[in-house]
Amino acid sequence: MIFSSIAIGISAQENNDVEEIESVTIIGSKENLNDLAGSGAIISNDDLQNAMDTDIQKILTAVPGVYMRTEEGYGLRPNISIRGTAIERSAKVTIMEDGVLVAPSPYTSSSAYYFPTRGRIHSVEVLKGPAVVSQGPQTIGGAINLISTPIPEVNSGKFIQELGENAMARTHAYYGVNSGNFGVLVEVHEHSSDGFDSIANVGGDTGFDKSDLMIKARYSVGNHSLAFKRVDLDETSDQSYVGLSQASFDANPRKRYGATAYDEMMNDGEQTSFTYIGDFDNFDVVFTSWQNDYHRDWFKVSDFNNDSEHGERDDINELISDANNGSANAQAILDGELPVEIEYKHNNRFYTNEGYQFRVSTEIGIHSLTLGYRDMEDSESRVQAHEYADQAADGSLSALYGYVGLSGSNNRLRESSATSYYLEDTMDFGKLAVTIGFRSEDYEQRHRRWSDPAGPNLTEVRLGADGSGNADVRDTMAYNDHTTSSIAATYDLSDGITLIAGFHEGMTPMFGSDPEEADNMELGLRYSEGTTNIDAFYFASDYSRLAAECTLVSGAACNPDESEVFSGGEAEVSGIELTGSFVLDGGNGITYPIAVSYTSTDATFSNSSESEYFGVVAKGDDLPYIPDSQSSIVVGFIKDNGLSGSARLVNVGGSCSIAACGTYNKIDSHSYLDLSLRKALNSSMDVYVILENTLDDEDLISRAPSEGARSQKPRTMKFGFSYNF
Questions:
Q1: What angle do CA 396, 297, 238 make, to 5 degrees?
Q2: For residue 23, what pLDDT band results from cuts at 50, 70 and 90?
Q3: Which CATH number covers residue 142?
Q4: Which of 305, 426, 581, 627 could form a disulfide with 653 if both were Cys (CB 3.0 to 4.6 A apart)?
């Protein structure tokens, strides 16, 4: 089904000059991978079109060293880890679109549950190792840059239509015009489904409806171009935050509790950017200014107010834990067999992310020099109220009532102002190339809270708390400056073999606290000859300070509304990454592309500690959610008559949801098999069919939060066609 891992080595390179006119890349062309002072991967548009996957987590199984934890089965809000970084909400990975940070609030709240819609993304770059120091601010594990659809060289467009089980429908269309110095592109992506889970007692949809609209325009004169980009996004998802007790999972892994019937994610946003690219005689310049606004309200079950009546703990995660530990009352409440008042919370937040950045590069003798600078501000505004519903003994729910509760941690504004710059010098000594990098981060942060309601947003407070009638109950400031450096070398042992070695200091900014820090190194080998490509890397990260901010998804005993940062002390992560691809010629106009990707990881705490977030940690305990191994193998065929197909088998090793791994924190190894078949009817139209989770496995693949068991997406079929015009 997916050729992304195959095509890292074998697909033909597209015209990257077209992409770079208005898209900012971090690697560039696939040919650049051979010169990269570190490990990286490019998943091209051909790869993505062959796969027709809209789940970024499946796409990234092609890249070793990248781990994912499923949230809802569709890849809408992926949890991504690179080389053992904390996996929650991808908060410790630098994620960009066209070179611009797309986390709604990268310094203040990078774990904000937004990820660009994969279905409209043109190609994907993944960067690991010392070169990631040039990206930031998260520089321990790596960076992911998603390239949007470029304006075409000639007037052209594409239309894709998919239909599938559970009333799934996806429509993707774009058209671009290029006339003289001017080019424009309009793109629409609509994706919806009724969902694959059922809801106990009361029924209802468990799917989503997501839409994106992108407009691009570009004006070019000689070696200079100015591009405008605008993305409008909107999503409504009937998704829940709640997993299942083990008993519920064993009975039916794809049935949600009736109490979650009101759970809903609603978000919308606008992203605007201007990019100037200039090619001067002695140097190149890329300048981008941007403004991103994002709003999301995840309305979901918070507590069951049952202390006095049933004697169980209130919090949904605690209730699942009690059920796992044998409480019949806790299980009965979850099953809708006992009457109880349910408290729902509006996780209602407004985010801003705006600034400018530039990159200047030049060559002087053996030196290739790059200077980058970024100046930005971001913020997170919370106005989080509660509503209530009554659950009857038959599992039915009353209408919602009682919109209350705007104060303290639920009525707050956090802001960051950051500047950063980096210097990079690659020195070419013939077969040997040495790259030295340096990065500086300066950021100031402010945290304010109010005791009284501020209405539907914090506009009045932002304009002046004195005039709003709100009592300011907290106003704190924090300042951090941090520098990191890197050194890497490549040596061409022969025409097809390159040796790589590198070291870099990495950091992750934490709001209102010292950053997370780690020293990182890698040793690797690249081999490339014809259609055969092999990469082998050893990596290690030595954390001097492992840090985490309390979130609900962690399932930790801390209060997620307090936004405290906890230290897990020291930790060590090391592993081996292997990826390879080759093509067998079967004769008679048929070829067999094969690709494998494998990662083995050892991620452990280096000391014992105890905190509300990490719990009781013993030296040698595994870091949460980092599996000991992960592998992907893709076997395909391509015929001259336009018929092609593939089988992808992914296996993920075991892990735990917390360090002190109990019976109900364990996640066993699991796997899935996807199949696809495609036929080119002519030069313009393809038809295809995809079967996901072919064996319909019901493995437990995640416990989030903490003990809440979740299953993988069931066997699902979809049909589609693509038409180029």
A1: 45
A2: low
A3: 2.40.170.20
A4: 627
